[in-house]
Amino acid sequence: MTVDEGVDISKAGDRGVLKRIIKEGTGTDTPNVGCSVSVHYTGTLLDGTKFDSSRDRNEPFEFNLGKGSVIKAWDIGVATMKKGEVCVLTCAPEYAYGAAGSPPVIPPNATLQFEIEMIDWKVEDLSPRKNKGILRHVIEQGSGAESPEDGSLVTVELEGRLLPDGKVFDTRTVTFPLGEGSEHNVCEGIERALEKFVKDEKSRITLQPRYAFKAEGNAELGVPANAEVEYTVKLTNLEKTKHWLMDGSEKIEQAKMFKEKGTNYFKASKFQLAIKMYKRVVSMVDSMTEDSTESEENQAQAKELVQSAHLNLSLVYLKVTPVHYFEAKDHATKALKFDEKNVKGLFRQGQALLGLGEAEEALKDFEKVLEIEPQNKAAANQIIVCKATIRKQKQKEKQMYANMFDKFAKHDTEMEKIRAKNEVDVIGEKVGEWGAGEGEWTDEQRDRKPTEFEKENPNILMLDKEGQFKNM
């Protein structure tokens, strides 16, 4: 290898990608997989023939690094570049366009050279709405292809700093089930980011307050309210729960454990964690409820667990702030599919319907509860509430219609006045002529001020050019 050829940066060490730096970049950071990079480039064949250039178009080229949107040599080479760096990549055919080439400009089995300038890059945004709430910069690439998922047992090394001063507030190694990080002072943004990690990956995670410790801060860690934070996170171990390897009995036991944890979280008023646990119950054994290959005992236990989880989810959604009436109704309805006379299901469905403004439907549910349990005072009280709500709704409807009729009556009165005033001037039936000239408006017609009714109802009453009323 000569100096002019550059350094072999191919992972296989097969000289497939050679890099020669023309201008050093600044800093130590380089872009990583998922970053949106912006570069200028000029591509040539080995004989110097230029086949493409972003500079000729005076428009930088942008792409997502490591996602296969460019040739293999680019994903490898650009990942090594610092900001402001200019380099030449010499790309063997198997790292470029291969045996096929890219007709008509790139022949088969062509070795290509690219002069590339790294302009800038945007770090990977992992926030759900891509609002820069969770930004990841990979420091050390991990190994393997598996990433943690909800319920996976993870061990991570953490170092948290406050921004912008960089004060360290958290340094530790912690093991926890993903999804329950709040029990270990691990904030939401770190858990969301870990879902994209692979084992041994080390990344810098920048979090806006919404995904960190929010408006409450964290007194135990010394994090103030609405603080932006930055974590260095390394995933050192990962144990995924392999549900597909479990038999029916093992799934039942796992679901029971989730249910118990959910109940404990509910009693502690940790409603979001309770919701996660009850949803895990459903995910674990819902498919078993109608699986004919399962034993009758396992099917029966699965049905009981799923029904109980839906009932508990309905209850939790009625407790959270703000109340989630739609979700509460949905889970109560699902529970009632197992037993349409389940009192808890009927009661919670009724509560949700009442919250959604469907008082008449809610009334039916509470009345069914009383049919099953005549002494149920809570249902009796809800019936009173429903009937009072229905009365108010009907009074409101009555008043609305009364106002509507008053408006129509006012409209009719205004119409009579307008017709009387314009009977001769506009329509001209009594005098047998149009006015100033056939087919034209008179000065009085043209300059007439709109009535108050017309101002309030501009789309109801208008005069066309012939002086006739339209939009009636």
Regions with pLDDT < 50 over 5+ consecutive residues?
Answer: 426-441, 459-472
Structural class, from secondary structure content?
Answer: alpha+beta
Q: Report the span from N to C terminus.
A: 88 Å
- Overall geometry comes to extended
Helix fraction bin: 25-40%
The percent range for strand residues is: 15-25%
Largest sheet: 7 strands, antiparallel
Record field, number of beta strands: 15
Mean pLDDT, as a whole number?
88
Order of helices and strands: EEEEHEHEEEEEEHEEHHHHHHHHHEE
By DSSP (H or I, 4+ residues per run), the number of helices equals 12
Radius of gyration from the alpha-carbon trace, in angstroms: 36 Å
How would you describe the overall organization of this protein?
The chain has 472 residues and is an alpha+beta fold. The chain is 38% helix and 20% strand. The protein has helices spanning 54-57, 72-78, 188-194, 248-267, 271-285, 296-319, 325-336, 343-355, 359-372, 377-427, 443-447, 452-456; strands at 7-8, 17-23, 36-45, 50-53, 61-64, 86-91, 112-122, 124-125, 134-140, 153-162, 168-177, 202-207, 229-239, 462-463, 469-470. α9 (359-372) runs antiparallel to α10. The longest helix is centred in the last third of the chain and has 51 residues, at 377-427. The protein starts with 6 loop residues before the first strand and ends with a strand. Residues 426-441 and 459-472 have low confidence and may be disordered.
